[in-house]
Design goal:
The chain is α+β, with helices and mostly antiparallel strands and about 140 residues long. The protein is about 40% helix and about 10% strand. The protein has a 3-stranded antiparallel sheet with strand order 1-3-2.
């Protein structure tokens, strides 16, 4: 267990139960790790991840970018059936602020941008595909 006098130290993960998660995140530079809002609690990584991707359209946008690769705004809007331009714009902005999506200006005239996943966004692939697989297994098809 970590020393209570140093609240910033992560708790020891030597309890033998890693819940199937590889505790070594060597592929992500510690400087580049995303902020955890409730450090020290066992449920905090789940809470933080849910906060990052828990809005209605966020997982769908990430899924479409995983499936189709970098996409323009209109391409994404077509791929994310039922999303308004305003909601897509706000969602993409939020995903950019959370360093999951990046926006590249392709041309000024006419103004065109392309959205793609960052390394952090691509690292969500197993989470997004697990969500998809769970839905396929447990949800009834719409009539």
């Amino acid at each position: 267990m970590s020393d209570p006098s140093s609240p910033d130290d992560p708790p020891d993960s030597d309890d033998g139960n890693d819940h199937g998660v590889d505790q070594d995140v060597g592929s992500v530079d510690p400087v580049e790790r995303l902020e955890v809002w409730c450090a020290g609690e066992d449920w905090c990584p789940v809470t933080t991840t849910a906060t990052l991707i828990g809005k209605k359209w966020h997982p769908v946008i990430i899924h479409r970018l995983l499936e189709h690769g970098p996409s323009g705004f209109n391409e994404l809007q077509d791929a994310v059936d039922g999303i308004s331009s305003k909601v897509l714009s706000d969602s993409l902005e939020d995903l950019q602020e959370n360093r999951l999506v990046e926006r590249e200006i392709i041309s000024e005239k006419p103004f065109r941008v392309r959205y793609s996943l960052t390394d952090h966004g691509r690292s969500l692939e197993p989470v997004i595909y697990s969500m998809r697989d769970w839905g396929v297994q447990h949800l009834a098809s719409p009539d």
